[in-house]
Amino acid sequence: MHISPENVEVLFGKGAELTIHKMLYQEGQYASQQTVTLVGPRKRIIPNLRILGPCRNLTQIELAFTDAVQLGIDVPVRMSGDIEGTPGAYIMGPKGFLEMKNGVIRAARHVHMSPSDAAFYKVKHLDTITLKVTAKGCTTRFDDLIVRVDPTFKLEVHMDTDEANACDLDHADKVELFKS
Ligand SMILES: [Zn+2]
User: Fold this and answer.
1) What residues pack around ion ligand 1 (CB closer than 5 A)?
2) Mean pLDDT of the residues in the chain
3) Cα of 121 from ligand 1 centre, angstroms
4) Is the pLDDT score of 122 beyond 90?
5) How many angstroms does the Cα of residue 62 sit away from the middle of ligand 1?
């Protein structure tokens, strides 16, 4: 979950702020100590949904498709931040309850890279690129990875747990990016 400062206060109480659990690979990004419970339309829940920090100006939930199906939410594939017309959800925190009108997405697979990485791969911001994961018995190609270029970015692919499990990423021998 990404969250606005106002919604942190709704869920965790007045004056509450995110605190760092673990730093992530991208500069300044972290998994916070704060978690919430998502309540879906069939009263099924996802407990211990982790909030990523720092705060953003909009609140958004990124689910793997398996989790969305289990909840009963028909979730669209979107780029982070593109949440118009997406489903909402009810979120329970320790100090309050948040009704999200929209913002539940399956995050579009993407790769973060610096301008020099982009030059190396001969791509620019918002191009697409292909990732090939070589793993015993389930070598898989992921097309349509969206390229995101920023001077602060380090080279890193972001995919969800469904995608990682499908190609047995944990036991993969090789990962390669190439122009589609
Ligand atoms: Zn990302």
Assistant:
1) 158
2) 96
3) 18
4) yes
5) 11
| Tokens coding 82 | 């593109």
Task: Tell me the per-residue pLDDT of 130-174, one tens digit each, with 9 for 90 and over.
Answer: 999 999 999 999 999 999 999 999 999 999 999 999 999 999 999
Question: What distance in angstroms lies between residue 148's CA and the mean position of ligand 1's atoms?
Answer: 8
If you count them, how many residues does the chain have?
180
Residue with tokens 């389930």: 138
**For the chain, how many structural domains are there in total?**
2
Output the CA 128–ligand 1 centroid distance in Å.
14
pLDDT at 107 over 80: yes
Q: Which of 86, 107, 128 is the last residue of a domain?
A: 107
Q: 45 CA to middle of ligand 1, Å?
A: 25
Domain that holds residue 15: 5-107
Percent of all residues in the chain with a pLDDT value above 90, rounded to a whole number: 97
Which CATH number does the domain housing residue 126 bear?
Answer: 2.40.40.20
- 168 phi and psi angles, rounded to 5 deg: 50, 50
User: SS3 of 162, please?
Assistant: helix
What the block records as the tokens of 99 is 């009704």
